[in-house]
Write a structure and sequence with these properties.
The protein contains 10 helices and 6 strands, in the order αααααβββαβααβαβα. With 285 residues, the chain is an alpha/beta fold. It folds into 2 domains: 92 residues, no CATH class; 152 residues, Ribonuclease H-like superfamily/Ribonuclease H (Nucleotidyltransferase, domain 5), CATH 3.30.420.
Length: 285
Amino acid sequence: MGSASCRRCQNGAESREHVFRDYPIANEAWTKLGFSWPSQDENSDFNEWLNNVFELYSLNQCRVFAYTLWALWSTINRFIHEGEVKSGSQTADFVKNYINELDGLSSCLPVNRLPLSRWATPTDSWLKINFDAAFKKERKESCLGLVVRNTRDEAICSKMVFHENIPSAFATETMACLQAIRLGLHLGLRKVEIEGDSRTVIRKLQEEGEDRSEIEVFIQDSRYLSLDFESCDFKFVSREANKVAHLITKEGINKGETTYLQNAVFTGVEEALMEDRRWMVPPRG
C-alpha cells in the first residue's frame, strides 16, 4: 500500500499499519476479539507488529489474528469496489462465525495429526548448541540465549548474553549464532550441530557465496570460525524444538544480565529441559 490518505476515514496515510491496526473499525474489531496492543506496538511497523503478535500470543489466538487480517482486507476491497461499509463489530462477528464453521467441519472429518516438532538428540559423539535471541526495539537491547546438550539431553552449559545499542532484531539472531560457534570452540568441541529458529540466518549460513545484507559481517565471521570445528552443521528448527534457548533469552532480557552456568540451565528453563527429555527424539539420520 502507498502513503496516500486513507480513502475511508481520510485521516492518516493508507499504510498497512493504519489499515490493519490503527483504523477505528480495525481497532473495534480487535477489541471485540479480545486483542489489545502494548504501547510500543503503536509505533512499530507492520512486520514488527506481526512478529510481536506471533511471539506473545497462543497458537489459537494467532489463528484468530490471521483470519481477522484476512477479514479486514476483504472489507477494504468491498468498500473500494462496492461501496460496502462494515463496522468493526460486524467484522469480529464474521471472524467468530467463520472459525466456528471451520471447526464444525473439522469435527466431521478424520484427522491425521502431525507430531509436534521437538528437540532431537545430536548424532553419536556430536554435541548440539541451540541459540536464540530476544530484542527490545524501544531500548535497542538484546539478549542471546545458548544451551549446549549431549546425546542424553544433559546440559553441558547454558549462557545468556545481554547487549545494548543493537540496531535490529535481525542482527541479534546472527550475533546469537556467532556466539554459539565461539562457545563451542571455547569448550573445545569438535563435532557440533548448531540449531536456531531463524530460517533466514540458517539459510545464509548454509548457502555458499557472498552475502550483502545488513548481517554480512556476522555471516562471514560465523562461516570462517565454523571451519575450526572438525564438523559443523547448521540446522533450522521450529520454535518448539528451540524452546530452551528461547526461554533463556526471555529470562535474560528481563534481568538485563550476562550469566554462564556449567552443567546446568537457568531456574526458569528447567521445566522445558525436562519436557524435552520426556519427549526425547532420537537423532535424525
